[in-house]
Input
Amino acid sequence: MLRSHTCGELKIEDVNKEVTLSGWVQKVRDKGGLIWIDLRDRYGITQLLIEEGRSDNSVVEAARKLGREFVIKASGKVIERESKNPNILTGSIEIDLTGIEILNASLTPPFTIEDNTDGGEELRMKYRYLDLRRQPLRKNLELRNRLSIETRKYLDGQKFFEIETPYLIKSTPEGARDFVVPSRMNEGQFYALPQSPQTFKQLLMVAGYDRYYQLVKCFRDEDLRADRQPEFTQIDCEMAFVEQDDILSTFEGMVKYLFKTVKGIDCAELPRMDYADAMKYYGSDKPDIRFGMKFVELNDVAKNKGFQIFDDAELVVGIVVEGCADYTRKQLDKLTDFVRKPQIGAKGMIYVKCLSAEQAGNGDGSFKSSVDKFFDQQALKEWADKMRAKSGDLILVLSGETEKVRKQLSELRLEMGNQLELRKSGVFAPLWVVDFPLLEWDEDSGRYHAMHHPFTSPKPEDIDMLDTKPGEVRANAYDLVINGVEIGGGSIRIHDRDLQKLMLKHLGFTDKEAQDQFGFLLNAFEYGAPPHGGIALGFDRLAALFGGQDSIRDFIAFPKNNSGRDIMIDSPSVIADEQLDELKLKVVK
Amino acid sequence: MLRSHTCGELKIEDVNKEVTLSGWVQKVRDKGGLIWIDLRDRYGITQLLIEEGRSDNSVVEAARKLGREFVIKASGKVIERESKNPNILTGSIEIDLTGIEILNASLTPPFTIEDNTDGGEELRMKYRYLDLRRQPLRKNLELRNRLSIETRKYLDGQKFFEIETPYLIKSTPEGARDFVVPSRMNEGQFYALPQSPQTFKQLLMVAGYDRYYQLVKCFRDEDLRADRQPEFTQIDCEMAFVEQDDILSTFEGMVKYLFKTVKGIDCAELPRMDYADAMKYYGSDKPDIRFGMKFVELNDVAKNKGFQIFDDAELVVGIVVEGCADYTRKQLDKLTDFVRKPQIGAKGMIYVKCLSAEQAGNGDGSFKSSVDKFFDQQALKEWADKMRAKSGDLILVLSGETEKVRKQLSELRLEMGNQLELRKSGVFAPLWVVDFPLLEWDEDSGRYHAMHHPFTSPKPEDIDMLDTKPGEVRANAYDLVINGVEIGGGSIRIHDRDLQKLMLKHLGFTDKEAQDQFGFLLNAFEYGAPPHGGIALGFDRLAALFGGQDSIRDFIAFPKNNSGRDIMIDSPSVIADEQLDELKLKVVK
Output
């Protein structure tokens, strides 16, 4: 027996018990006559005490050989501590040691195993098994485990079946790039790893399974942006005989359940926002609604007043930053620099300070703006009234082409949210964004692409615009957004073969291509496909959000770096020529 | 709203409710004035009633257009049935229809959607989404879902964390053949899909996670025998600071919990059988102990009595088949034919009938054997006494080289178990087989291979035989066997770098090969690896066993055929030249 207890469970009630613990040496403090060892395992830290003279000599000697991260088995009696530590679970007791056995020695780790380590990113990735010993990572993976347990509990309670779909499937050119897997038994042919189990879950609905879910790995061979992983995990769900509202309320229930059980937070009803409104009022299809600063469009009060830049703009639009009329010239210049950054791309920024009587003391008037030359106090008051700006507030305005200026102002809004610390971690503001466009124009290929995917159902009332105004057709598609992050998305699917064929035609598939790639799904639709729809949530992202962090990497046990490499195991790697021969493949450099 | 209730929930208490159901038309019976429709969904079947004259004309007309597997939405009032059907959940009621809406039509399915379908294997694989509508398959997947839920519940209760390990890992030549995945971002390099998360779960133990599990897909590119799948699911587990007994008792607990919660069966304590005993008494490392017929070795009573075949044999060994002394010549000849089949390979079979007084009526004596020429009544009585055969029993004896004859007799034993219906489905006899050999000799490569895997710990007391008698070194390795099927296996792992290097050397790895392939694990062992061990259970197999079936295929939603093909989606398939170019690959035929 290697332990009678873990390092996280002994309490004052256990005093006088003879116990055996096993774990890692976190720290040894040798104060001459007294030696303390902090022994660590997943469950906590327990203090071990050795007293020269009183403790057995062999124990003293063994203790003096220990280094950081040695693995030991320690036996002794639980005693009450003289100076208690209320910050740890076992802080009232220590173990008066009678035996130490070194189970394994350890080299000195290349970085410290502490909450704030001295190890750099690259080094910690290489020694991931050591980095994973640190408490912050352990807590992340524990949270992830808890989230998966509770997700399954909720969906099981809602009569969903978890059904595993295959990983070795078929490559389709639509969407992102597939990872492929050469088949040895079928020469020159390849499987593909799933980008999502989309078609399989739809087939399960055709098969009558009614409610399906799966926590499932998905794969995309994309050029990795920061914080993207080639393999990622989805909570993948599908329901039959439902309309959009049924799905939203089922998964709103899940979101509330997870916040309650995992974070102890009561969530109010989730707001539902049209895609069009999200773009109009937040300039984003994933608005962070933890704070206000909704966009106000100013065309009617700002255009045709002789200011050329506004007059030439398609849209003049601004936000009110509460209580910031006292921003200095320097602060305002920094904001102008921010919106001018190439990745944001605005030409400039207009501000209006709505001064309080005190601030405006010198009699210059209540409004001080960067466009005083073109707009008098009355004109600026009109702006302020329209924007419901109060005295003491700051108005920031951008102008230009509608789509671009909305994106720019969205960035500025988020920046102001950050500066004013309105995007608080620990505060969660989930919402549904609904009524997404069905199609989006792709400049590169010069054709429309499915915004969600080719199986998404158009709104019935918009179908007749497919030929005339395809860009305006709305879909029965929805996203779950929390704190400005798209956590998941889904749609009601097409369940009619003819409509599906029509959609594929609009997406540029020939009949033959459609049949080659999706024939099995189109065929399935001939045999009694029920109305159905679903959703997929990014599980890595959800875990990071619940953990209050932006990066998903530390919520994945063994992530890959930005080149798609696992630097701990040094993969990918070259394979043996015999393996290539068996697969009838040759590498062509 | 597409339904107010499912097709499985309306009961006599619901009479007079106005309801809406949606589902598939299982059957339409049109008896002139009265039309009954059986409407089916995942939850059950509800009978719909239409009466010409009384029901709305549009409803009658719509009903007459319905075919099998049409998807409809049906509204009406719950009424009490005249002739109740106690066999179905909703058998007391029917729905007096006021409205039918056809949600989707259906072509006539290529086979019947009934418990016993008329469809052949190939056809049902192609239309898997229709086959999956049949109740037996639905029940299989429901059972599988229940098993996964309960497995997680048990392990969560035992403080295991489910931690996802990567799917894109590194190819290693040891063991079975890997599926590989070319990396586009790392030219000429490949990932491999995991055959198991073995090294990662060991690293999680080094990282201090203490108790890990995962229900995880694994991949092996093997030539597919019947009922093997290239991708399969494992319940994969690992524990730190444990000895073999800790693991056996934890997973014995899981087995009992699953039998209790999923099947309602109370399991007794699992017997533990040495590998050596399993081979000696059952000729198999996965004995089916639902029935007896333990082997009895007969060398001392059968050899050196002048019967050349026995005298030349290394082992003479037999089983007692209770109450079968009345077997006819024909029956016995068939058994001889059975053991002579090439896949079994015995030269012949000896029998001894232990006749009752009545059977032996003619005074020929109590024993009638196929070797009467060589063994008199007294000699045969010695056999019978040694084997504890009673009068009325049949003794079957094989002889030859020890290993071979044990395998042959094992097949004969199982065949007798089948013939006598002793291998009852619904009866479960789990056991642990322990103390497996560490190494097994491989004729092809002329060297020893790891019987379990290269990370398995030898028994400490056997380590010094590694050089002298490697074949006799026992491992801390164990299998979970139920009803003659190996459900899972595991071992205590090596956690010492030097011992691991020694093992790899014995397995024929050079130092460089060992470092190239397992360097990360060997390095990890330098930094405080705890004693650890684990187990992996075949989840597909477990589900099939619980479902009382031999084949795993119908416990997998979308299985592949024996050529590794998914014939529904027609995969694997050729991929576009552009895809190959991007991967810098060429197919060489």
